[in-house]
Amino acid sequence: SQTAKRRKKSAIWKYFTICADDVTKVACSICKRVVGRGKNLGHLTTSNMHNHMYYKHRNVAGIRGTQSSRRSQPTPAAPAAPAAPAAPADPAAPADPAAHASEAHDRLSRTMTQTITDSVGEMISMDLLPYSFVENHGFRKLMRVVAPHYTLPAGIHFSNKVIPRLHQRVTSKVIESLVNVEGDVVHCTADIWTRKFSTSSYLSLTGHWFVQYMSGGGAVTHKRVSALLSMKDIDTESTPAEILQHLLGLVEEWQAVVPHRFAVGFIVTNNTSNMVKAMAESGFEHIRCMAHSIHLIVTGAIEECRSVVTVINTARRITNTIHMSTKAIAKLHQMQERLGLAEATLTHDVPTRWNTVLFMFQRLLEQKEALIDMSAEVDLGGSVAEPQWTLMEAIVKVLEPFEEATRTVCQDDASISSVIPCIQALRAALNELIANKDVSDLLETRKLVGLLQSHLEEHFQHVFETPTNTYFKATLLDPRFKIMPMALLSRLDFERLKAAVTVEVDELLEQDRMLSSGEAVSSSGVAPESEDTSSKPTSLFWGAMQSLVANNAASLSKSVTSLGLETYLAESSPQSLASDPVSSYWSVKMAQHPALARVAVKYLACPPTSVSSERLLSTGEDAVAPDYRLLPVDVPLLVFTKYNLVKFHYANPRDHLEQHCCFIQNLFSYSFSAHVKSSPI
């Protein structure tokens, strides 16, 4: 019939079948949706069928819109010539190489179509782009050049299909790691970031734990894992009670996903009043972010020193003036070249990051000669007298130990076991600064050191209040600092601390009693070789830290020979200050002291700061603060996918690079073969 002939002329019919009860309608074989072909039986069209495939199934290779929809789209580059109708196959005839090549190309086309689509989805997540980005003319033009036979799906396809599929894949990786969590304990950090000029805020919850796995040589080792568990859009004016409800809801969601394997250990947050009040009613043990505490200590001390504030304001004016003047920047670079200084711009300070004041001073002192010479020709917005330069140098010396302490506790492998040692190192460094003539001779810096000492004791008073608290337990179970509690506590309090740890070990042994064979397991592993504790660069802070470790190790009693905790304390096994105590020490001791090692892992897995939450919220800020193309409702999903995609899918940057290069190579191979196939010979 005429209808049958017309049906054979359009390739769209392989996706549709005519409805038995109404020939004017067809059913999509992909989604089963019914589409009309018109009301006039003598003039039925396929336009609606083409439009349906274009808007609903654009990821299907080869789909094009109708003539009207094509006119609204960018013109595709050099489409392939339509294939001639295939002749009936002759079983006796030899195989057609061209047919095999065409079939192989079609398979490559389908594979590359999915690969390109998934890669664009990863790009949207990694760069926190709005879904509408894929509809930008520039990006579409680029894709037509790179892959002329690839049809880029609409933004709604990425928001409804691609990104949720990627999010689910990443979530599965997180769940897989949580199923194997060591000790069934997950420590969390939480933070709130408020979007500027908006009522939107984001509450984040990150998790930190260890997983045990077998290394290549068959030895058991541990890997530290951190992941973004949840991120939620909340009201900016949320009360502490509401914040707590949101937080408990996020925890319960994961406890339902990973039952019996997700027990919250400690929760680390900053020192803001809302978070402190929320955690006071939570029932969880609250650890205050040490980096935020140091920020409050330094900024509080600086605000009470008027002369220091004056120098900071002068430095800020000079920095801002030069940054805002093209002429001043050019003159600075000219002076740097003439004086043989490294070409560099001045550093701005940021109110929420105290250490940027230190960096601003360091850069100004580095460029002191150039700035002095410039001041005779260019208005710098202020002048620095020689006494102020001297004061600036002294302030840098005073603040450097606090910057090193901040950097230490903000490392990815940092543990709460480093809190007490860092406080002790800061105490020792401040005592040495008082004895430093360059610092003590200036009234302003002598006052600053005194204020820093008083603020340090005030903010960390809670750390030393109870000898059996989390901080002392973690320090005792860190082989790098295990004897430090002995030096800080009385003999009676130290015995109480050991007893508290022993109770936890005995509880684990009781839990494992039914599983153990009753025979002592000897460790055949060899403890790692002693590492040089002087691997850190020489500085006031690290010099104080190394002295503390050395002095405490020298006071170690050699007469203790009992098993368990006493054996661990009596053992002489110096560790590098830069090492991870779990992977470098407790993994080896897991067979010898399994219960003690598990208790140690529990405490050493907890970070001392909430920086992991703050960093990912800064990532969100970079995406949504400059413009508001990215909707608030889309931020949690994209940030979750980005953070964990890097942590799990691209854990090794080399793997990410190799996968990216392989994708580019295949893409261009696909693009080149498509050009060859479509080009006349």
TrEMBL record:
Q: Which residues form the BED-type domain?
A: 7-59
UniProt main location, coarse: nucleus
Q: Which SMART domains match?
A: ZnF_BED (SM00614)
Q: Which Pfam families match?
A: Dimer_Tnp_hAT, zf-BED
Q: Where in the cell is it found?
A: Nucleus
Tagged with keyword Nucleus: yes
UniProt keywords (A-Z) are:
DNA-binding, Metal-binding, Nucleus, Zinc, Zinc-finger
Key word Zinc-finger present: yes
- Where does the record place the region Disordered? 65-108
Check the record and name the InterPro entries matching this protein: HATC_C_dom, RNaseH-like_sf, Zinc_finger_BED, Znf_BED, Znf_C2H2_sf
- Stretches of Low complexity bias are at 78-99
Coiled coil, from the record: none
Q: Which PROSITE patterns match?
A: ZF_BED (PS50808)
A single cellular component GO annotation: nucleus
Q: Name one GO molecular function term.
A: protein dimerization activity
What residue stretch is flagged as signal peptide?
none
UniProt lists compositionally biased (Polar residues) regions at 65-75
PANTHER family recorded: BED-TYPE DOMAIN-CONTAINING PROTEIN, FINGER PROTEIN, PUTATIVE-RELATED
Please give the name of this protein: BED-type domain-containing protein
Biological classification of the source: Eukaryota, Metazoa, Chordata, Craniata, Vertebrata
